[in-house]
């Protein structure tokens, strides 16, 4: 058997170590493909329901999602270039700016983002399995059935995550093709019930149109790209700068995010208005579906869910591996899958769906945006040149190196992140928490914009006279062998 075939067919051997050049066999189109395929699931579709649940009419709902998604992509897509240059994941790469210990901030943000979205994906996927089975065959639709569906989806997802990058890359192509066909059938299935009128009689969620529209742009639009702030590097690290250009990686990442998010979310908005989904999405979606569409819906509930949840659990495993180096990637993946499954059961038995999802994405956007801004400023300042070996100091449980700063922390970057995150959290407006700064923004949720601008200003001011560490010309940017993890 050819050596490359053996690598492709087995469990991925790399964690957050530096990927050696011989293993960097990915292509920019693989990055776009996995971003498209892994998002073709109800866990992403459901974000298209949020604008409808907020009381918006159809076309304002569409406009808010498109505007938020495009804005978020402009900020997030360049992050793929960081791991493209460092050959490791994004949270580890951020050590070049935050310090080799300070990059734990990125690891924690990535872990929380993936944890929440993985739980949401399995939660909605379970409903898409139980609902059709109940209508088709009369299976019970109580807690026991949901629990069984969640358990099966969790096990399949973690198996995909354990095999890792190459299985995810291959699987995403099939999931994308199948789900696009399902959505085309779905438009036919729900077209007769579609209306542009609001689905709820409760009025605008925030009391007036523009405040509600802004909430939708952030919660349903901007939050999508923000979910990728630490995930993009998981795939661009496998693309070699010796064979591909930075612009090709950027374009692939941007196209993959825009299509991977807007296609399923727009389908979610269309079906939300067609099914009259006000307080819940999946239940009305199943109830309004013609019988012939239940099988395609069931198939997406299985394959779309395990594709998306597998990618998210894979990313969680990398982040936990970066936080706890003694763990292997496989061990970290299994532990994080247990945590995400626990959140699934809490989401079903304890929390209110709409309030929990909205609050989750807004709060994490508020603390994730400052980290992304600082990481991108650092990338610009070092002109994309990093010392890959020095980035691995924490993973080797050693000390020193180009990015040691003060005990492994760049205190200026950490302070700027803390300032920006605080402003962001004080500016969010959700049903569960309303920041005091919203009184100064006319009730609009400007948490993302305020957090990003405040962070950039704080970091630039705090680092006056403190240049970004840049390796000298003799330091190889892509080492021939992986650093020790």
From TrEMBL:
GO MF, one example: transmembrane transporter activity
Membrane topology: Multi-pass membrane protein
Gene3D superfamilies: Hydantoin permease
Top-level taxonomic group: Bacteria
Keyword annotations from UniProtKB, A to Z: Membrane, Transmembrane, Transmembrane helix, Transport
GO cellular component terms, semicolon-separated: plasma membrane
Compartment list: Membrane
The keyword Methyltransferase belongs to this UniProt entry's keyword annotation: no
Annotated stretches, region: Disordered: 1-25
Keyword set includes Transmembrane helix: yes
Chief localisation class: membrane
Transmembrane segments: 31-52, 58-84, 104-128, 148-167, 174-192, 212-232, 244-267, 287-311, 332-351, 357-379, 400-420, 440-462
Entries under PANTHER family matching the protein: PURINE-CYTOSINE PERMEASE FCY2-RELATED
Family: Belongs to the purine-cytosine permease (2.A.39) family.
Protein name listed in UniProt: Cytosine permease
